[in-house]
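User: Hey, quick favor. My workstation is busy. Could you predict this chain's structure for me?
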Amino acid sequence: MTTITHWIAGAPYAGAAGQTTPVHDPATGEVTGHLAQADAAVVEEAVRTAAEAQREWGATSLARRTEVMFRMRELVVQHTDELARIITAEHGKTLDDARGEIARGRETLDFACGISIASKGEYTADASTGIDVHSMRQPLGVVAGITPFNFPVMVPMWMHPIAIATGNAFVLKPSERDPSAANVVADLYRRAGLPDGVFSVVHGGRAVVDAILEHPGIAAVSFVGSTPVARYVREKGAAHGKRVQALGGANNHAVVMPDGDIEQAAAQIAAGAFGSAGERCMAVPAAVAVGEAGDLLAGALKREAERIVVGPGDREGVGMGPVITAEARERVLRYATDALEAGAELVVDGRELVVEGHEGGFFLGPTVLDRVGTDVAAYREEVFGPLLTVVRVDTFEEALDLVNSSPFGNGAAIFTASGEYARRFTHEVQAGMVGVNVPIPTPVAYYSFGGWKDSLFGEHHAHGPEAVRFYTRNKVVTTRWPHQDRPVTASLSFPRTTD
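Assistant: No problem, here it is.
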């Protein structure tokens, strides 16, 4: 039984002997390790060493920083299978899904390898007579990331590559449910040549979160998680003078029009609903069937859900693994049962699924409910499990109003053959990411990732140019070099560029 330690100053860091929490294999329910829990003193040590390292790293040339990022990218490619096995062992998702997560996270490393372009300033000659103006972006100092269990590699990679490439030091607080991948990433940074202290990992729960949010040496915090916690992080971080980017929960809708390819829509929606056991902020837990698409969609979703093989994520042929904890399993069961008691129709029932040989695992089968009322929790709240609700409406306008009435605004999709409906949807839907005949509209890393409404607290989305702006601040320099033949006369009047 291993003890998972923190990572500070380029090496494992045990800190003072103290409390640990168990780490489970969701496929068996067994404890596979014990996680050291940080306290404020551990956070203080991480920030202290990070601040020392950042002073030199922030002054390091872009060429050198880029070289480190290229080496890191290559190491991530080489260690993809190792990272995937760790993710599957602690999260439960399939190996193929874990490899996909790593590949999508690596896209941000790709972007960070071009940081010399992404962080360029501007220059204007002769803004006024003999006066030039230029801008530059400079690092904030020490920044931190607080990340969720569902993507233990990808979501942190939305943050730390760009933060580090722009000259900051980064302190990561990963989820305590699947923490090991963060330490492997830290060691890969060491091997890539990143100076000790520029990337640190501290493990723990709310006490560590609060220590990060309160620490005066941390300039900015990035967060991904539930809406209540995102709101808390935003408010507490801002109260302590920090720049905060907090991505909250989601309840993404997929609208299916009668003119769409129903079979294709069902296949894509089922993949979005049940991939990673529905534990994605970009999952599709709600399908909105318009008019006569309803019966056809329900039948097609039934066929798709019943084809999914459920089992341990490292088993060949498995399409869906377990949920993360026993508590998560019970929560999804309550959502489904309450919706059925409220009048929903059961299309596919995965509530009693048992995986032979893994009876202690946290498994659920894909569950599909039709004719779900919009007042039940299974529709209104973020389920975060393999439960798909189908809501029926008569018109496109009703579907659009339904999507826009949600307090969440992370992602939304429409399946249609009509350019008119697609264009109206993309322009009028209140969501930060939109898909047309695409169930999970997760943008590539050189665009931003983020939602609207209760899905985002803060001004900046994740990755891409938005992340460069978040992890740096702008400085504008106005320059004049007086010439001996053109003396400059000082004036008490406010300077005018026409002078």
